[in-house]
Amino acid sequence: DAGVTQSPTHLIKTRGQQVTLRCSPKSGHDTVSWYQQALGQGPQFIFQYYEEEERQRGNFPDRFSGHQFPNYSSELNVNALLLGDSALYLCASSLEVGDGYTFGSGTRLTVV
Amino acid sequence: AQKVTQAQTEISVVEKEDVTLDCVYETRDTTYYLFWYKQPPSGELVFLIRRNSFDEQNEISGRYSWNFQKSTSSFNFTITASQVVDSAVYFCALSEAYSNSGYALNFGKGTSLLVTP
Predict the structure, then answer these.
(1) Whole-number pLDDT of residue A36
(2) Which residues of B touch A97 (CB under 8 A)?
(3) Higher pLDDT pick, B111 / A28
């Protein structure tokens, strides 16, 4: 049973560029959340998608946007990249809210 | 607002020692969930436990045990007879239990555990 799959695993972008990260949730899970983890810090909640709608959003600027598809997979888009956007981006899926979310291995984004 | 504090930034122990990772939380909610996750060098967060705020029973799973005390707002994690494979960063997290808008996890900054042979 595949868990959460994220792609790509690593990415290097130039400041000002745009990036799209992808996530396939664990089979049967319908809720997808995205987190940003800076080096040496705990993950910070970006937003959560359920039934193709953004259900909750953390304290992140509008440069961060997302989408959920009918098959529950999700994308995270970041526009106008800043050096401070360099981080590990984690996707988590769940079936029941408050459940033990299943996390992917993340996408390591480096902005230069 | 919710907040999770993991005061121990790094802990180093020798194999077979017991080690306790501390977690203190703040929330105005009367009902909430507490979690522990393990993050090995690969980066993936591995779910260890979820505890509902109504359930203050301590839990044991193999070498792992958790002590939940609402009176002190703490949810501590103990590894008994530590092993090298336990080396990782451990995160404590908190979320609402009832919400129409989702259940964001609020993480602490993590405790890096190094177990040496």
Answers:
(1) 98
(2) 99, 102-103
(3) B111
